[in-house]
Structure formats: structure tokens, C-alpha cells
């Protein structure tokens, strides 16, 4: 067992010699690493709860959750036990029914909001989003026009990427019928207006865009209820009401991508529950199986037959081991009151972030819900110009001191496991605070 009183513990300045050796071997073959790895190519070997350890023996506080995946922490005993139980039974049988899949589906259905009851399982978020879009086209009789927001992240496959904002990398053209509307981000309003005087101009523009860019084949609006990749962008509650009204008036489906926000990350099992929003299709993934690859879609009961018509199954979706991990993860949610912990620790972290914002000149905004949080670094609090250089520096400095977390240029993302404690969170925040001071000194802020 890791001594949490001695966490974090940096034995060798990371990335240490063993990390450099292993990463050097891997990158001869592995290409296309994430920005996380590119900025700090440490090599991890094991994890336990809220702690992750590299090959040099350095111990870090995990503020990433394996990019939002390890909801129950690293190697939760109940999840590990269930995987071991099924590893010796059956590894794959395509999409045939297994007892553990049935048990997971029943338990998952009990967690889903509204009357979402038709489920299909996949491995990754992009795959599930693509399935959701196929579902829309099936339900809408071939209508194919989809709308989303600037800054949304729905995946890295054809249509999912076409409904995403993935920076300046050339990947076009977008798939036919995919449109992005200005995001209702009050901190960086695309229209340079202020709430509430803006009277939700962003929603009016979305409505006009759907009507004017659509060609009669408008099928659905797909959204992240809180933007993840763009840095925990939280919308005004009224936005969700307007979006629901816009979709209803045009007979469009509402697809909510909760790959990142779902499974307790924001303090509710699904983020839509904060807003009493009833999507027609919901996409889930990441934290569903405690770090094991599993994703899926759930559709309203009246649309369940569409899944029978669209060849919805996949080779690995509903894999017995994945279902075992997911079933155990849901049991942990029930038995350990994870949502209560998310709300308590999330409020504690946010209170600390607000105080940091007041004392640091380069923190322009702190935001989020539950344990989906972000720090937005700026060159000037009035202009709100993103401070990308500082973001990269703070990320690397904090990581070198023992906080494993997520960069997005000027936005630093905090996503600890849902079992995070206030004590460990405070240690991580002290390191982040110290790293921001060092960056401010370096840049003479």
C-alpha cells in the first residue's frame, strides 16, 4: 500500500532515466502522442487509488484520471476482482448475450435519466458518437444535417470529427451536413456581449443558423453539456431550455455527448440531470468501466427499434471483461456514495481555485462542475488573451513536482478520480499554486 502521507514523492527529476529509456524505445514505433505526453513524456508503471507511479519510482497525485476514465481510481479492488473473475471464463463471443452483459445492462438502465432504455455498447467515445449519428439518420428517415457548437469535442473519426473543433490541424473537408455554431461561452463570448444583457444572442444565432444553413434535412443537434477539451466550459441554465425548444420546434433530435461528463464526473450521474434535460440519445463512455474501454449509446424507448435497423453491433462492444469492469464500477457508485464525494471535494477544490484567481494576475477564470474543472490563464484579465506559454510552463512545473494532470494550452484541466480526498486535493493545489507563482515570476507578470 502506498503511504499517502508521502505523496507526492519525487525520487528522480522526471522524466527520469527509466522513463526516457522506455519512451525512447516506444516512440521509434508509436507516433501521434497526445499533447500531455509530448510536453511531459513520463512512463507510468502502476497505479493505486488516487496515486500513479512511474518507472523511476516517482509517485504522483492523479488529477487526470487517465483523461477522465479512471472514475473509481486506479485498480479499485472491486473492479479488479470482477475482471479477474471473468478473465478466465470468456474473452469474446461477438455480440451474443452473456450473463455479465445482461447484469450490466440492467444496472446501467437503472442509472440512465428519463426513458432512455435502448442501449448498444462500444469501446471508444468516437465509435459511440458515430453510432448515435447513425441512429439519428435512421430515426429521421435519412435526414443527415447535424449541428454542434464551436469548441465541442465529439471524436476523431469522420463524422464525429466533423462536428468537433480540433484546433488548427487540417483535417477537412467536414462530412456533408455537419455544421458548427458559435458557442455560448460567457467568459469568451463570440459576440463580445455580456450576460444577461445579451438576451442569449448565441441561442438566436444557433436558431438562425439551423434554419438558414440547413437544406430541409435538419436531423439533430449534438452537444457536450459541459465542454471538456475546451476547458470545462459551463453554460447558463437557460441555454439548455432554448436548445430543447429549438429542436422540438423543428422536429430535430437532441443528442447529448456525455462521454466525458457522464458517470458522475459533474456531481450527477449524468450532467443533463443538472438541467432536467431529456435528450433523445445520450452517449456515454470514459468513466463507465473504471478505466476499462467501454462506451455506448442509450436512446428513448420509442426509438429503440432504430437500433435493430442500422446494424448497430460491433466486434468488441459488450466484451465480457468490459461489462464485468463496468458492472463492478456501478456497484462502487452505489456502495461508496461516489456522487456525494464528487460534490463535496469538487466544491472544496473550486473554493480553493476561486481564492487562487484572486491572488494570481494570470488566472483569468476558474470554472467547472463537480470534478470537471479548469484554470484559464490569460496575459491580461481585461482582454482575456490566452496565455499559452504560461499554460505549458505551469503544466510541466506542476507535473515535475508530482501532479499528473491535463493541459490544453492556456487552459489547465483538473479531473481527479471520483474518489479523490480533500487532503490529497489540497496537496495538488498547493503544487499548482506554487507553479503558477513561478510562471508569473518567469514571465515578469
Q: Name the CATH class of the domain at 77-336.
A: Alpha Beta
Query: How are the strands of the largest sheet arranged?
Result: 4-12-11-10-7-5-6
CATH architecture of the domain at 77-336: 3-Layer(aba) Sandwich
- The coarse overall form would be globular
Notes on the structure:
With 445 residues, the protein is an alpha/beta fold. The protein has a domain at 77-336: Type I PLP-dependent aspartate aminotransferase-like (Major domain) (Aspartate Aminotransferase, domain 2, 3-Layer(aba) Sandwich). It is 38% helix and 17% strand. The protein is built from 14 helices and 17 strands. The chain has helices at residues 17-27, 35-39, 65-68, 77-87, 99-111, 125-139, 158-162, 201-213, 237-249, 304-309, 320-336, 338-359, 388-401, 422-442; strands at residues 44-48, 51-54, 59-62, 116-122, 145-149, 178-181, 218-223, 226-227, 233-234, 253-258, 281-284, 295-300, 363-369, 372-377, 403-404, 406-408, 411-414. The strands form 4 sheets. The protein has a 7-stranded mixed beta sheet, with helices on both faces. A hairpin with a 2-residue loop joins strand 1 and strand 2. Helix 4 (77-87) packs antiparallel against helix 11 and helix 12 runs parallel beside helix 14. The longest helix is centred in the C-terminal third of the chain and has 22 residues, at 338-359. The mean pLDDT is 96.
Amino acid at each position: 500500500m502506498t503511504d499517502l502521507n508521502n505523496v507526492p514523492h519525487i525520487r528522480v527529476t522526471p522524466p527520469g532515466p527509466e522513463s526516457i529509456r522506455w519512451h525512447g524505445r516506444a516512440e521509434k514505433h508509436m507516433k501521434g502522442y497526445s499533447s500531455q505526453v509530448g510536453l511531459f513524456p513520463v512512463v507510468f508503471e502502476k497505479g493505486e487509488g488516487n496515486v500513479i507511479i512511474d518507472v523511476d519510482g516517482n509517485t504522483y497525485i492523479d488529477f487526470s484520471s487517465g483523461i477522465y476514465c479512471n472514475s473509481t481510481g486506479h485498480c479499485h479492488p472491486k473492479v479488479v476482482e470482477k475482471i479477474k473473475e471473468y478473465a478466465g471464463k470468456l474473452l469474446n463471443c461477438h455480440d451474443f448475450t452473456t450473463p455479465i452483459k445482461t447484469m450490466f445492462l440492467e444496472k446501467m438502465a437503472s442509472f440512465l435519466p428519463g426513458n432512455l432504455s435502448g442501449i448498444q455498447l462500444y469501446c471508444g467515445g468516437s465509435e459511440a458518437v458515430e453510432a448515435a449519428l447513425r441512429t439519428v439518420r435512421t430515426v429521421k428517415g435519412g435526414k443527415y444535417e447535424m449541428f454542434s457548437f464551436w469548441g465541442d469535442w465529439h471524436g476523431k473519426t469522420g463524422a464525429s470529427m466533423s462536428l468537433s473543433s480540433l484546433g488548427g490541424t487540417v483535417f477537412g473537408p467536414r462530412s456533408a451536413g455537419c455544421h458548427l455554431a458559435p458557442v455560448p461561452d460567457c467568459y469568451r463570448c463570440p459576440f463580445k456581449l455580456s450576460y444577461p444583457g445579451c438576451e442569449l444572442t448565441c441561442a438566436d444565432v444557433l436558431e438562425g443558423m439551423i434554419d438558414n444553413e440547413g437544406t430541409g434535412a435538419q436531423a439533430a443537434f449534438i452537444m457536450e453539456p459541459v465542454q471538456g477539451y475546451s476547458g470545462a466550459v459551463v453554460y447558463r441554465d437557460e441555454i439548455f431550455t432554448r436548445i430543447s425548444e429549438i429542436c422540438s420546434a423543428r422536429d430535430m433530435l437532441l443528442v447529448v455527448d456525455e462521454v466525458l461528463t457522464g458517470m458522475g464526473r459533474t456531481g450527477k450521474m449524468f450532467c443533463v440531470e443538472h438541467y432536467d434535460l431529456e435528450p433523445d440519445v445520450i452517449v456515454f463512455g470514459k468513466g463507465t468501466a473504471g478505466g476499462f474501454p467501454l462506451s455506448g449509446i442509450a436512446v428513448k424507448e420509442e426509438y429503440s427499434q432504430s437500433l435493430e435497423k442500422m446494424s448497430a453491433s460491433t466486434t468488441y462492444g459488450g466484451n465480457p471483461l468490459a461489462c464485468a469492469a463496468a458492472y463492478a464500477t456501478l456497484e462502487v457508485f452505489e456502495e461508496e456514495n461516489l456522487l456525494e464525494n464528487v460534490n463535496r471535494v469538487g466544491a472544496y477544490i473550486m473554493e480553493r481555485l476561486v481564492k487562487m484567481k484572486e491572488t494570481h494576475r494570470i488566472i483569468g477564470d476558474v470554472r467547472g462542475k463537480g470534478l470537471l474543472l479548469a484554470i484559464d490563464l490569460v496575459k491580461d484579465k481585461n482582454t482575456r488573451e490566452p496565455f499559452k506559454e504560461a499554460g505549458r510552463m505551469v503544466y510541466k512545473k506542476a507535473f515535475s513536482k508530482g501532479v499528473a494532470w491535463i493541459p490544453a494550452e492556456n487552459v489547465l484541466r483538473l479531473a481527479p478520480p471520483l474518489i479523490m480526498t480533500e487532503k490529497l486535493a489540497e496537496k495538488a493545489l498547493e503544487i499548482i499554486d506554487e507553479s503558477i507563482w513561478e510562471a508569473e515570476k518567469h514571465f515578469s507578470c
